[in-house]
Amino acid sequence: MKKLLVAILLTSVMAVTLAGCTEADKVSYNVSKEADNFNVNRRVAIINVRTDKVEFEVIGRISVDTSDKNKLVIVAETAKGKYKKHLVNMTSWNMYVVEDLEGAQVNKYKYEVNYMPESIVPFTVTESK
What's the pTM value of the predicted model, to 2 decimals? Predict the structure, then answer.
């Protein structure tokens, strides 16, 4: 009985979660994923709000982490397998703008499953006769 209640609860939560996902949400997620994989050309500008001057700018294939409201983390791919990381301290005196320069070609239906080989336990198959 307890397992049945848990199964019903999980099914209900999944149904509500999936029902609230719009086409725009799917496309937005896919565009963000493409940008974080360095497939989108972007510009990030840090602007001093008191002087209206751009203080710092990065243009290129970049990933932007905005999870910390006091710090902006910018990682730029400068060549195949080469990256540079920039940390910007965010204060009440500055703001940032992230601009998509080229757009992204994404498929709202795309999904992928990845198997991490390092997490698979190796085994040997033997045949007995």
Answer: 0.61
